[in-house]
Amino acid sequence: MDHDLILLGHGSGGRLSHQLLDELIIPSLSGISVAGQNDAAVIAHDSGRLAFTTDSYVVDPIFFPGGNIGDLAVNGTVNDLAMMGATPRYISVGLIIEEGFSKKELAVILSAMREAADLAGVQIVTGDTKVVPKGKADRIFINTSGIGLFDHDLRINGCAARPGDKIIINGTIGDHGICVLATREGLDLQTVIESDTAALNGLVTELLKEGEALHVLRDPTRGGVATTLKEIAVQSGVTIKLQEADLPLKDAVKGVCAILGLDPLHVANEGKLLAIVAPEAAERVLERMRNHPCGVDAAIIGEVTQVSAGAVQMETTIGGLRAIDMLSGEQLPRIC
Length: 336
Hints:
Pfam families: AIRS, AIRS_C. By secondary structure, the chain is α+β, with helices and mostly antiparallel strands. It has eight helices and 14 strands.
């Protein structure tokens, strides 16, 4: 293998992505420490703090059950701001469109973006459009950047997990990744698996009522729950232990993963968050989630057990202990 070449796996959100960031991109551009590598940057300014984030969307196919590339882009940027505890306010949209793309399909995508922004309470305030020759892109790519503001003094950060903390997810795992895979490959599943794409800032507003008991928020998108928890474990210098029996999974998602040999912990989500909270607040947070439309299937799935170099383990349903690591390589390409 030529180690000088970029591979699809470098865009997976897993181990290869982290290697590319750590060895080339971050040292070249900013030198930001591991502790500061969160879903959005928090920037201090004269009147307080703001959160800033950016992301690009290249999902294939661009239309799938439960959404399309447009609402996916808006929701993803809203969620990255919300995971820092910020209130999302403003978004930019950059469109890269391939020559020959349908104006009717573009109209559907733009309508979905506007609807998603309105539902999330954010404004699309600026943007850019480029058209490239046919065959030089794949229909349409979208970049969104976002700004969020803080109305509190809480510091929610991936390096804030502590021994004893409980880990809570707001719903079923792997829905988006399996939805996109099934649509792209034309799998006949005898049932429809819909993407979970959703803006989570309303749910986060409820969770912020727990104050300093809320330590970490993160949305497990590319690389899935496993990769996200590994990132947090390394940032915080702790060991995280999951309970396999407590992982919420739709039967259809579980079945597809079993047939195709996929680990649902490595499958992408687009409307899920992981909350790491003080143990005394766990049941209250779980109740807040279950009382919100985006959290009806919420579950406590594990805990932070000890200080360490950063490890994730899972107690299996048969009583064994399995090491959990970041996604290696490219499991499901082009899922966001």
